[in-house]
Design a protein that fits this description.
93 residues, mainly alpha, globular, CHP03643, TIGR03643 family protein
């Protein structure tokens, strides 16, 4: 999925997921079809330069942002309260 076809809501969600420590880039790729490099480009384009630099510094020091670098116990990226990762809906209790 190219960034030109993304809605404002989808871009906001990608940025939110990218900021989350425990959401790997693979989850963004699975849900939105953006590779890690495309996500970085989107973040650079959509954020203030200072915010982007802070985010990049934060992401580079996190093992949890890369699925293959994670420990075995933390391999999943789907929250237990989510119905499906593709729609990202939290079920109501």
């Amino acid at each position: 999925m190219e960034s030109t076809t993304l809605t404002t809501a989808e871009i906001d969600r990608i940025i939110e997921m990218a900021w989350e420590d425990r959401t790997p880039f693979e989850a963004i790729e699975f849900q939105f079809g953006l590779s890690e490099q495309q996500t970085i480009q989107l973040m650079r384009r959509e954020m203030l330069p200072s915010s982007f630099k802070r985010w990049r510094k934060r992401v580079q020091s996190r093992k949890t942002k890369h699925f293959m670098k994670r420990e075995e116990a933390v391999q999943r990226f789907k929250c237990s309260r989510q119905r499906t990762i593709s729609l990202n809906k939290i079920s109501k209790r």
